[in-house]
Each structure stands twice: as structure tokens, then as C-alpha cells.
Amino acid sequence: MNETTRSSQWLFGAAAAAVVALSGFATSTAFAADKLTYYCSAQEDWCQLMVQAFEKETGIKVAMSRKSSGETFAQIKAEARNPKGDIWWGGTGDPHLQAAEEGLTEAYVSPMRGELHDWALSQAASANDKTIGIYAGGLGYGYNTELLKEKGLPVPASWMDLTDPVYKGEVQMANPNSSGTAYTTLATIVQLFGEEKGFEFMKALHKNINQYTKSGSAPIKAAARGETTIGIVFMHDAVKQAVSGFPINVVAPSEGTGYEIGSMSIIKGARNPESAQKFYDWALKSAVQSRSLEVKAYQVMSNKAAESSPSAPKLDEIKLIDYDFKKYGSSAERKRLLKKWDDEVKSLPR
Fold first, then answer.
1. Are 70 and 179 in contact (CB under 8 A)?
2. CA torsion 350→208→196→237, rounded to 10°?
3. What pLDDT is stored for residue 308 in this prediction?
4. Confidence band, pLDDT 50/70/90 cuts, at residue 240
5. Predicted pLDDT of residue 24
6. Among candidates 77, 344, 88, 83, which has minimal Cα distance to 199?
7. Calpha distance 286→295 (Å, rounded)
8. pLDDT one-digit tens code per residue, 221-238
9. pLDDT band of 26, cuts 50, 70, 90
10. What dihedral angle (degrees, nearest 10) is formed by the CA atoms of 70, 96, 136, 175?
11. CA 239: distance to chain centroid?
12. Cα–Cα dist 302/261, whole Å
């Protein structure tokens, strides 16, 4: 074999190796684009349904993590220098607004916005398009009718009723530091009664609390199992237990109550931004939102054409306060209220 032949073979081999290397690079790049890391703060079965439906429709492989909204916010903040998540779906809107304010999420304007209710768009406007409303739900509580009767307790109908000493050890709510539901409760009481009287209420309620849970929906699940008599939750979570056959009655407090705008946000520095935007647009479709009924999620969905269950709480029939999402979703106000609750309420004996 002469020198020219050996040289030609070497060049051919090198070129082939380069083609293989480039092909492998292209394949790995395409594979990376077909991933999504999804942080979900809604109920577990709904989170799983969203994963399965999105993977089936798009072929994009989803890695899902389910935590309460307060825990997810803390995780996104902790990961800010090296973001691991792409999109955050579900959970109360206040932590989403705080994440937007602190620069942890990205602005995105979806082509689906024209199909949404005004309250969903108001949430986006409050965050300069760094989040958007995906569902709404009124705050209240549920009680176990069998336990109430067995213990000879009166039927509660208002917020103030829950501070009656007769309910000592009978009420459960989540910790507002970890739960968006509980933070909404704290912010609602402050707006409803004023800060001074609102904290007096929280101190009186504290005496009747048997446990502060990590998750917002845990109290009503405990009530359904007969582990507590009353659970403070969003009303749709109480409806789910009632529809599932548990002896739960749902209460919209007579003084009025707050509500949540469950939200969705793209995480700043997402490793898979195109997949995140695809999920964002997909999750706002009426057909996708209507599938919430499959997992007995009874929120009011943000797409005007999405189907709602007849069992879902009707927000237009509930006395809702003019909840100030911008103020109580701000970082400074949230931190201030939580510290005050820790210092003045949680630290008290029960």
C-alpha cells in the first residue's frame, strides 16, 4: 500500500468518524429538546394525568415532582443559580406572584390567552406575564358529619364559629409556610377582619388546632378518614371528598371568604424552554382543562370553554372578598405575615 492510498484511507476514516460524531451530537440535542421537568402543586392524581396526557400527545418525556406550592416555591428559589425545573403548574397563585417578583420565572405570552377568563389574565397582568391563571377556587372548610353528631358538636357556619372553645382539638389546617392554601387562609382573615382582629382570630383558632399539616389538602383528607372533625381547605377539595362518598359537608363561611387563582409559570433559566412553552399552551386548552373532571378536581377552569362539574362550588354564589393578589402575593408582605404568624401564633401553647 503506497503513501497516497494510506493517506486517502485515513482521511476517509476521519470524515466518517466526524459524520458519526455530528450525528450523535444532533441526536443528543434533539433528545434533550424532547424533555420536560415539571413541578406540580395540584393534587397528585391530576399531576399524573397531566404527565400521561402530555407525553402521549407530544412524545415529550416528562420528569414530574409533586410538592405543595410553598415547598415548590422554596425549591425553585434554592435552585435559582442552577435551575433544574422547566415549568411549575398548579398551586395557589400567591407563591407564583412572589416567584415572579423575585425574578425566578420568565415572561411568556401564550397564543391561548384569548380563550381565558378575565381573572386568569388579571393574574398575568399582576406578574408582568410571568404567570397565568389556570383555575380558581373559593376558600372554606369541611366537616365530618358523623363525628360532629357523635361528639354532640354544633354545626359551624362561619369563620368565627371555628374559634369556639367547643371545637378544641377538632380543627386542622396546614402550615402557611409550606402551604399556599394556609397562606391564603391567613391573608383572607387579615383582609376580612383587619390585621389586628385577624391575628386575634388566628390566635383563638390556634387553641382549637390539633395539627398543622404540610399539605393544604391534608386536613380534609384527615376529616374524611375520621382523624379530625373539621378541615380548613379550598372548598373544591372538600367537595372531592364528599363526592367520593365520605361524610363531608362543605361550608362557605358566612362572613365572606377569599379565593385562589391557581397558576402556571415557566421557570427562569429552564433547560428545556421550548418544551415548557409547548406544555404552557397545551395546558390552557379547553379539552385539556376539561379532563380535570376525570380526577374529581372541582375548581373553575380558566378556559371559558372548559367543562365544569355540577358539583363544583359556584363562585358567583359565594360571598367572595376583593382579594388583593398583588399585595398578598408580594415577597415583602408574604414574608412579613408569615414571620408574624410564626412569632405570635405558632409559638403559642395549645
1. yes
2. 130
3. 84
4. very high
5. 44
6. 344
7. 16
8. 999 999 999 999 999 999
9. very low
10. 20
11. 17
12. 9
Per DSSP, the residues of 189-233 read HHHHH-HHHHHHHHHHHHTTEEEEESSSSHHHHHHHTTS-SEEEE
DSSP-derived pairing of the beta strands 230-234 and 132-144? antiparallel
Residue ranges of alpha helices (H) inside the chain are: 3-33, 44-58, 69-78, 93-101, 118-126, 145-150, 180-193, 195-206, 218-224, 235-243, 273-283, 286-290, 325-328, 331-341
Contacts of 264 (CB under 8 A, 6+ apart): 87, 88, 89, 90, 96, 131, 132, 134, 280, 283
pTM for the whole structure: 0.81
Chain segment 188-223, per-residue pLDDT in tens: 999 999 999 999 999 999 999 999 999 999 999 999
In terms of Cβ atoms closer than 10 Å to its own Cβ (0-12, 13-18, 19+), residue 167 is buried
Burial of 313 by CB count in 10 Å (0-12 exposed, 13-18 middle, 19+ buried)? buried
User: pLDDT confidence of 7, banded at 50, 70, 90?
Assistant: very low
Amino acid sitting at position 74: A
Q: Quote the CA–CA distance of 327 and 333 in Å, as a whole number.
A: 7
Q: 100 with 268: CB under 8 angstroms?
A: no
- Residues paired with 84 in a beta bridge: none
Q: Which three cell numbers stand for residue 70?
A: 410553598
Q: In the numeric block, which cell numbers belong to residue 24?
A: 450523535
CA distances from 253 to 35, 140, 156, 158, 279 (A): 44, 6, 9, 4, 36
Mean pLDDT, all residues of the chain? 91
Q: Which amino acid is at 163?
A: T
